[in-house]
Amino acid sequence: MTYVPYSYKHPSARRYVFISMGKKRIEKVVDFVPLKAKNTMNFGFGDLMADGSINYKANSNNGDILKVMATVVDIMKHFTSMHPESFIFFTGSTAERTRLYERILKTYYTLFSKDFIVYGIAGPENGNKVVPFDPQSGIEYLAFLIKRIN
Amino acid sequence: MPVDKKNTARKLLKKRKATTVVVIESRIAAEDTLFPEKVAKANKILSHTKNLESIIGK
């Protein structure tokens, strides 16, 4: 990703905060939470609202999505450099959002795959399978798992 | 103003300043789970992932 990422703060071991400075000023939060599966962390991402709540369904339309994504990748690199054994799980809050993540992964796969092994989770929610992410395929993934290449 | 009144006024002002401390707390506590629904969704998806252990190990 050739976009210059925003600088971020790292207020706790699993949390990152940065400001999206597009049309508006939006505080973004990234939170890694351990899942039940071994060495697997959920990647949570959303907007910090004025009342202190988090909105992860917001479509901010702030005009800086690629800069925000570059920042997210930067944060993932930092977190996985601290926890190289971790698998990072992420999915969209909606099917549409998951498709957006998939399009971004496909577009930047060449760059992304230098640092991460990327898996997709495909199939029905109640009987799915982890498969290597294929940027050429038309598979609609349910979610993604990535792991840092050491 | 007489000196003792001035001193009393200063003391009161100092006391008032000392007691009107504004505590600015972080709006999000470190131990909170910010995305409980997403964590639940992730656990649900992965609980139905047939070959997960072969990827992440047991």
List keywords for this structure.
heterodimer; A: about 150 residues; alpha+beta; nine-stranded mixed β-sheet; about 25% helix; globular; B: about 60 residues; mainly alpha; about 60% helix; about 0% strand
What this model shows, in words?
The complex is a heterodimer of chains A (150) and B (58). Chain A has 150 residues and is α+β, with helices and mostly antiparallel strands. Chain A has one domain (8-148). Chain A is 23% helix and 36% strand. Chain A is built from three helices and nine strands. In chain A, a hairpin with a 5-residue loop joins strand 3 (25-34) and strand 4. Chain A starts with 7 loop residues before the first strand and ends with a strand. The mean pLDDT of chain A is 92. With 58 residues, chain B is mostly helical. Chain B has a domain at 32-58. Chain B is built from three helices and no strands. Chain B has helices spanning 3-19, 36-47, 52-56. Chain B starts with a helix and ends with a helix. The chains are: A alpha+beta (150), B mainly alpha (58). Chain A binds chain B through residues 11-12, 15, 29, 31, 33, 35-40, 42, 44, 46, 48, 52, 54, 56, 87, 89, 91, 93, 119, 121, 125-130, 142-143, 145, and chain B through 26-28, 30, 33-35, 38-39, 41-52, 55-58.
Chain-wise SSE layout:
The complex is a heterodimer of chains A (about 150) and B (about 60).
Chain A: E1 8-12, E2 15-21, E3 25-34, E4 40-48, E5 54-55, H1 65-82, E6 87-90, H2 95-107, H3 109-112, E7 116-122, E8 129-132, E9 143-148
Chain B: H1 3-19, H2 36-47, H3 52-56
